[in-house]
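Re-run requested by the PI after the first attempt was lost when the workstation crashed. Everything re-entered from the original request form. Ligand of interest: pyridoxal-5'-phosphate.
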Amino acid sequence: MRLSAAEEKGIRMAREAGLRWGITPYYASLMDPGDPSCPIRRQAIPSAEEFGEDGAGSPDPLGEEASSPVPGLIRLYADRVAWCVSDVCAMYCRHCYRRRFTGEVREGPAPAGTDPYQRAISYIARTREIRDVLVTGGDPFLLPDAAIETVLKRLRAIPHVEIVRFGTRTPVTMPQRITPRLCAMLRRYHPLWINTQFNHPREVTPRAQRACAMLADAGVPLGNQSVLLRGVNDGPGLIAELGKALVRIRVRPYYLFQCHLVSGTAHFRTPVEAGIEAVASMRGTTTGFAVPVFVVDTPYGKVPLNPETVVDRDADAVYLRAYDGRIWRETNPAPDRPGSAKRTPTGQWSEPMIRGRMKASSSSGARPRDRQK
Ligand SMILES: *Cc1c(COP(=O)(O)O)cnc(C)c1O
């Protein structure tokens, strides 16, 4: 293919900076060889833009290193933990927020006779609140089947681990990795969930569809975590089109992420209003479960940003904005906790009371530690 000047420079600069790049032949086959603004190219080929000024970016925008109780584990929530079991990927996304280590192969293979999983497994085993383990990386499906099975066996030996989920982009970037053998192994360790990352309808190919069908037929519910990326999928209707394409291949849109504030991704970032608008425009115009939740990932956890739908409240009703803009008055009892409801002098229920209640009902569960500054 013909590389643009920005791509050639990007590849050179990535090499100088020690920043890994790599693309599978399959993913490269989806590229438009004549169009440098191709959404597949923008996700995969380094660009000089990654090395420009980025005042807002940092190497570890979620402070994951600081929320890591043992190497490889990231614990932001009391009941679930992310476990990075691999630091390699099939394709190195140009928007990766873990680019500080992906592709680096920092430690090499574990020396013979040592156990690379011991510290993470023993932390999970002694931390009884953890009921959900998110196996991620890098890409965990870059491990051989036998290593994935070892991870699963050892997690399944811990009684309080109720569910295991994998975060893998292989159905999108290397669907050939999803083999009958892998699926036959996975199905012995249910309940298992998988989240992948389709970002553009052009990635929803017959080959990707086959990979997803094999996993779904093995009983694995599939979710999708997209990232909203300028010049990739922020065009009109693209997120809606992607949502519809995903439910056709049995993948349920889960999250749509605001692009992380990781160094070198300034050219991908969109205003949060773009994400709110993308999901708001889908509500009422397509299948409810084709609509992802738009979230900003922060060091304090994921924060969903929803279109405002409760527009007002009075003593016995809430006023709700429907998808088409019409306002519905829904009769609604007053809050019954004594002292929680305050009437303003005009007889209206006060705004801070409404906000306070919403906050109280959405923040459940204690944090593993107090993260307030
Ligand atoms: C995203 C994430 C999770 C999982 O969050 P869900 O909202 O349950 O999908 C868990 N741990 C960490 C560190 C995460 O970033």
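Saved to the shared folder this time. The chain has eleven helices and twelve strands.
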